[in-house]
């Protein structure tokens, strides 16, 4: 069920708790609703009423997974009497009569029915167990001896090779996952009656780490573990005992893996207990190797195929950052330096002309990094910059059908010429210009250039028209705009990109929906002029130069806002401003903030200034937040704080509230918030585009997040990125795609949502 952090309006788990769990608890005499959590996650939490749950969840003080676990535990308790009733011999017999297991006839020659059964996970008897006793094997230093309760009258004896790999003291009373139908074997004089299932991870230092699989907290010994799609009621009960000569488990073991989320799987299908509670393991897996059949190995995070050709798949934050990778690949001979076709899948054309600045390589190949940086001006001029260098002869923009109202046609192709002009410009200063050709591609017709001064003064300014003779053409390109469903059809027919053409594939995650984050602040009731004042002050206080410093500066501000909120809690109404200079609590707040500032002084986040000026600016900044209400402060904290542009951009624009580049009510960018069903359909459409085999293998793939500049939905970006990468990896079985995450990604490889502080309360108390 859908359960997004902090979302209380569209939440199936909360609805189930409200209309099922709590009414039943009320009928049971008003029992408490208890959510069990590990101590490192805050320990158990008890709720008297549903409203308490909703309020806590809305404040993001209750994690969605903890809520799911709590509801699942409560539901299990409700169903336990029914399960116990069905354990009676009469009802078990009735079950067997109602759902008989189809018997397979013996093959000629006396072969057993088990030999004719498919080799799949339904053959395995996997159960939740609890280790009730553990010690070192008396005859072997590398073995442990355990007694494991698997729901039978007596514990089973299990001998495992964990000595030296996993601490003995951590096994005592630990819940584990056990394979129970292997043939018992003698291991140094003691018969082992089951196998402990563990995850095996080999890190970059070649050191092997082992950890037992971790069943759900509400599991009990004997609970059956199955694989989705291979349930026993569909395919039959497990073998009473696996025939060791047929190597059943050994055949299945290579596909017993763990996902990147730590879920144990078989060929991508999750292992679970009843009610589909996933089986997890607790190691951050990296490169993985399997050392023996006693262990389930983790899946490598980067999916690869047999090497025939190598293609880089680069993930960047802002779109102009692809220029460094394109030019580097061309300089190394991975892609041609000219004549390429760009397949650009994006909600925006990104075809604005660049500005002629110092060090700009005018219609030639850049000679050094300084010239490349001069081309990296913003997220909407990088394509024209690449075209001017000669890298592309044709650009195909595939735009999303949700933006049809802003387009004149579903498939339009135009030839353009680019050049320079000095027409009507003081001191013969050069500017870039472009001309559109007639349909026959021979006659220049409409020509214009962008006067940057007029552009900044007039929001409706869309370029200055000039005569064709006044634009000195230096190069040409073909520009095609095509809606996504037409692009899919043409790709299938091999009509979009010609056979033998050199192709670069470029995808922006905002293709799937464009959400302007600044509305979050406006909806909270913060006037935009006040947002701009806060931004200006923050630019005067913070000067992070690296994304690492950016993350530290964001954490600093999160701690400050948490302190302010902490001192607001004495207010009776959330809408009341926090504290005032006359409030006694303001002194305590000042002491707390001073302590935090001192702890961050040497972390490279503050601008160079004297101590007194820094204190004055910080005090003024904090006064702005103190004047906000609690919900408004939380809106700022939820949005976070970041650099406006990537630190590798030609001109960095400082540190501010992370609302993106498009201000509410001043941008012409179309906003489109997709629902889950639409998002799924659009992801499938892109997958179908990429899986068609009627276009050349791209020499490079670039994927842009567009979270920093405020386009891509933070809510969905992880799902979008994972799906797009998987679609690219699956698009060519004869290609090994090397996934590269750029160093300047906002929030790092895991993204902006990962920056949220999980221990804010602890930081406040220090």
Automatic annotation (TrEMBL):
GO cellular component: cytoplasm
Gene3D superfamilies: Nucleic acid-binding proteins (2.40.50.140), Tyrosyl-Transfer RNA Synthetase (1.10.240.10)
Keyword tRNA-binding: yes
Subcellular location: Cytoplasm
GO molecular function terms attached to this record: tRNA binding; tyrosine-tRNA ligase activity
UniProt-listed GO biological process terms: translation
SUPFAM superfamilies for the chain: Nucleic acid-binding proteins
Keyword Cytoplasm on entry: yes
PANTHER family with a match to the protein in the record: TRNA-AMINOACYLATION COFACTOR ARC1 FAMILY MEMBER, TYROSINE--TRNA LIGASE, CYTOPLASMIC
Protein name, UniProt field: Tyrosine--tRNA ligase, cytoplasmic
């Amino acid at each position: 069920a859908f359960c997004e952090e902090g979302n209380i309006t569209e939440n199936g788990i909360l609805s189930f708790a409200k209309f099922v769990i709590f009414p039943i608890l009320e009928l049971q005499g008003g029992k408490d609703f208890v959510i069990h959590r590990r101590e490192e996650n805050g320990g158990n939490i008890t709720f008297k009423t549903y409203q308490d749950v909703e309020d806590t969840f809305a404040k993001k003080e209750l994690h969605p997974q903890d809520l799911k676990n709590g509801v699942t535990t409560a539901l299990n308790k409700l169903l336990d009497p029914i399960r116990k009733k069905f354990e009676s011999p009469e009802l078990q017999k009735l079950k067997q009569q109602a759902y008989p297991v189809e018997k397979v006839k013996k093959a000629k020659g006396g072969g057993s029915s088990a030999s004719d059964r498919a080799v799949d996970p339904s053959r395995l008897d996997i159960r939740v167990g609890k280790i009730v006793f553990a010690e070192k094997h008396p005859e072997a230093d590398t073995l442990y001896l355990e007694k494991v309760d698997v729901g039978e009258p007596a514990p089973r004896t299990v001998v495992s090779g964990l000595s030296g790999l996993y601490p003995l003291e951590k096994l005592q009373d630990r819940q584990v996952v056990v394979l129970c139908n292997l043939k018992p074997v003698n291991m140094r004089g003691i018969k082992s009656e089951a196998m402990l299932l563990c995850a095996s991870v080999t890190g970059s230092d070649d050191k092997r780490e082992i950890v037992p699989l971790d069943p759900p907290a509400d599991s009990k010994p004997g609970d059956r573990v199955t694989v989705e799609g291979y349930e026993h009621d569909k395919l039959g009960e497990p073998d009473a005992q696996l025939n060791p000569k047929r190597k059943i488990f050994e055949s299945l073991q290579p596909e017993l893996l763990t996902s990147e989320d730590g879920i144990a799987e078989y060929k991508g299908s999750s292992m679970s207990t009843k009610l589909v509670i996933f089986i997890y393991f607790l190691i951050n897996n990296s490169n993985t190797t399997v050392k023996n059949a006693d262990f389930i190995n983790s899946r490598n995070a980067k999916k690869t195929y047999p090497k025939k050709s190598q293609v880089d798949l680069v993930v960047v934050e802002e779109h102009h950052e692809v220029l460094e990778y394109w030019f580097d690949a061309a300089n190394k001979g991975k892609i041609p330096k000219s004549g390429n076709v760009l397949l650009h899948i994006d909600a925006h054309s990104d075809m604005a002309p660049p500005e002629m600045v110092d060090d700009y390589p005018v219609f030639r190949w850049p000679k050094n990094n300084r010239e490349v940086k001069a081309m990296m001006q913003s997220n909407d001029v990088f394509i024209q910059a690449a075209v001017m260098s000669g890298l592309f002869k044709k650009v195909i923009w595939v735009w999303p059908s949700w933006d049809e109202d802003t387009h004149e046609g579903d498939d339009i192709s135009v030839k353009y010429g680019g050049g320079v002009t000095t027409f009507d410009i003081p001191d013969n200063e050069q500017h870039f210009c472009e001309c559109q050709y007639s349909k026959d591609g021979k006659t220049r017709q409409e020509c214009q250039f962008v006067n940057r001064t007029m552009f900044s003064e007039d929001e409706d300014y869309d370029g200055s028209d000039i005569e064709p003779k006044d634009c000195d053409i230096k190069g040409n390109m073909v520009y095609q705009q095509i809606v996504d469903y037409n692009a899919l059809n043409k790709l299938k027919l091999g009509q979009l990109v010609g056979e033998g053409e050199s192709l670069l594939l470029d995808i922006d995650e905002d293709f799937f929906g464009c959400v302007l984050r600044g509305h979050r602040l406006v909806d909270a009731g913060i006037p935009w002029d006040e947002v701009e004042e806060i931004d200006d002050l923050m630019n005067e206080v913070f000067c992070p130069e690296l994304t690492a410093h950016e993350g530290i500066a964001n954490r600093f501000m999160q701690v400050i806002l948490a302190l302010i909120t902490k001192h607001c809690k004495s207010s009776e109404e959330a809408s009341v401003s926090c504290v005032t200079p006359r409030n006694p609590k303001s002194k305590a707040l000042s002491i707390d903030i001073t302590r935090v500032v001192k702890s961050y002084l040497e972390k490279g986040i503050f601008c160079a200034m004297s101590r007194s000026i820094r204190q004055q600016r910080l005090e003024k900044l904090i006064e702005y937040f103190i004047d906000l209400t609690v919900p408004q402060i939380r809106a700022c904290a939820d949005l976070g704080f970041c650099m406006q542009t990537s630190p590798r951009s030609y001109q960095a624009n400082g540190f501010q509230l992370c609302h993106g580049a498009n201000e509410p009510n001043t941008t012409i960018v179309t906003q489109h918030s997709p629902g889950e069903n639409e998002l799924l359909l659009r992801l499938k459409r892109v997958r179908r585009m990429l899986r068609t085999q009627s276009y050349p293998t791209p020499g490079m793939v670039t994927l842009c997040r567009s979270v920093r500049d405020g386009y891509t939905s933070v809510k969905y970006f992880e799902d979008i990125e994972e799906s797009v990468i998987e679609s690219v990896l699956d698009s060519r079985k004869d290609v090994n795609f090397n996934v590269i995450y750029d160093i300047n990604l906002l929030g790092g490889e895991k993204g902006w949502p990962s920056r949220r502080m999980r221990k804010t309360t602890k930081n406040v108390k220090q």
